[in-house]
């Protein structure tokens, strides 16, 4: 026959259990609350000056192989967001970079700096391609051979940056001349001012 505890013992046991529950609950809630203002939080795995990633998607990025002088980088910039994104600058580990576009002057295609940057509209893709807009690598510090990987960093109008890798490959295309009037001409060009990019006859 089970032993019956006095009524006072039941009350003490219930009080002890309630106190224990309160203490455990307080400990659990404390771990999920925000720390007081000024309290250091956990260290982030990304440093303050680390380049941002994921501003744009980058597909099929490549660089025209070149021994010296100038060349260009191409690919597709994909904006899956709901706001336009403007690329205002770029840099690589082998040269400075300018944002260029192809335009028509006196009936001839000419290369020039892209004023206002590259605006990638919301929910759209912006093509960088031979004979069109591209990233102009100005004055290579070393040869870019087929198969080399070139690190490219984009800078955006809001100050964010994003780095991606482009693979170098040989390309002749329509014999585009990536040699603007300023700076050294690209290999195989005559360095004529005007930065023409007309196809070979």
Automatic annotation (TrEMBL):
<dbReference type="InterPro" id="IPR058248">
    <property type="entry name" value="Lxx211020-like"/>
</dbReference>
<dbReference type="InterPro" id="IPR036182">
    <property type="entry name" value="PCuAC_sf"/>
</dbReference>
<feature type="compositionally biased region" description="Low complexity">
    <location>
        <begin position="179"/>
        <end position="201"/>
    </location>
</feature>
<keyword id="KW-0732">Signal</keyword>
<feature type="region of interest" description="Disordered">
    <location>
        <begin position="29"/>
        <end position="49"/>
    </location>
</feature>
<dbReference type="Pfam" id="PF04314">
    <property type="entry name" value="PCuAC"/>
</dbReference>
<dbReference type="InterPro" id="IPR007410">
    <property type="entry name" value="LpqE-like"/>
</dbReference>
<feature type="region of interest" description="Disordered">
    <location>
        <begin position="174"/>
        <end position="201"/>
    </location>
</feature>
<feature type="signal peptide">
    <location>
        <begin position="1"/>
        <end position="32"/>
    </location>
</feature>
<protein>
    <recommendedName>
        <fullName>Copper(I)-binding protein</fullName>
    </recommendedName>
</protein>
């Amino acid at each position: 026959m089970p032993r019956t505890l006095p009524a006072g013992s039941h009350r003490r046991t219930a009080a002890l259990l309630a106190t224990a529950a309160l203490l455990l609950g307080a400990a659990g809630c404390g771990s999920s609350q925000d720390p007081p203002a000024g309290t250091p939080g956990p260290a982030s795995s990304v440093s303050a000056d680390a380049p941002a990633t994921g501003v744009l998607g980058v597909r099929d990025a490549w660089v025209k192989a070149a021994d010296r002088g100038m060349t260009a980088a191409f690919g597709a910039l994909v904006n899956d967001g709901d706001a336009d994104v403007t690329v205002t600058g770029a840099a690589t580990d082998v040269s400075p970079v300018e944002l260029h576009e192809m335009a028509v002057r006196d009936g001839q295609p000419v290369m020039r700096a892209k004023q206002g940057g590259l605006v990638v509209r919301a929910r759209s893709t912006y093509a960088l391609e031979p004979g069109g807009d591209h990233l102009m690598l100005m004055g290579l510090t070393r040869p870019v051979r087929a198969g080399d990987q070139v690190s490219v960093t984009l800078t955006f109008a809001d100050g964010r940056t994003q780095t991606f890798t482009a693979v170098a490959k040989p390309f002749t295309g329509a014999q585009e001349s990536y040699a603007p009037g300023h700076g050294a001409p690209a290999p195989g060009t005559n360095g004529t001012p005007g930065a023409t990019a007309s196809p070979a006859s």
